[in-house]
Specification:
111 residues
């Protein structure tokens, strides 16, 4: 029983110390292509959403933040820039003080 406890603790420590390396490893799962001076995922899109925002601009900003937060978490901060992404689509709906947006884009990073 003691051996299993020690093995479990070792796994937790290994996972805790491998954040950036693990994130980069996730990016390696996808094919990439050069787009200008960037390296981009060739056919893998990420999405971001927002809802209940007071304006269309706020809804777009929140959806972009959502995209960047998840993409940066999954692949590392180098991949988490919506400004650097390609193949972007933004669809918003709502009115008055209740807006929401859905976005999609292929992550890219500077090379």
């Amino acid at each position: 029983m003691r051996l299993f406890q020690l093995a479990g603790i070792g796994c937790v420590l290994l996972l805790a110390g491998s954040g950036a390396a693990a994130a980069q490893g996730m990016a390696d799962l996808h094919d990439k292509v050069r787009v200008g001076n960037k390296l981009c995922m060739s056919n893998h899109y990420h999405s971001g959403q927002s809802s209940g925002q007071p304006s269309k601009a706020a809804a777009e900003k929140e959806a972009i933040r959502n995209w960047q937060d998840f993409t940066g978490w999954e692949y590392g901060s180098a991949w988490g820039s919506f400004a650097a992404a390609v193949g972007k689509s933004i669809k918003c709906s709502g009115g008055g003080s209740n807006w929401g947006c859905s976005i999609e884009a292929r992550p890219c990073r500077s090379r």
